[in-house]
Predict the structure.
Amino acid sequence: QVQLVESGGGLVQAGDSLRLSCVVSGRRALSAYRVGWFRQAPGQERYFVAAIMGRDAVPYYENSVKGRFTISKDNAKNTVFLQMNSLKAEDTAVYFCGAGNSASDDYKKGYDDWGRGTQVTVSS
């Protein structure tokens, strides 16, 4: 079981930036886990935003955030970051991070444990 704690959300204006953090605590090092960011807007389903793989740190992005968001990690600090630039009102959502050690080739799957989320609100 992995514990995850998100932070860094807040209320910003369109065009501003935020950096979200996800501290990952498990029995193994961060490099053993894939970590993904997902978001859920009011009245909508949770969907994939970005992910970073454990071993090779390859990042993946949903098309709507590509070029604006950057996922990265600091293995020594067991922390995954989501740098969000040029924020839009459509980015408003609760952002969750999830972790798993799945070997699936589908980077959108295999997240077994989740944080409780951090609210991002972008005003226009």
Summary: Residues 49 and 62 are 5 Å apart (CA to CA). The mean pLDDT is 96. The two ends are 39 Å apart (CA to CA).
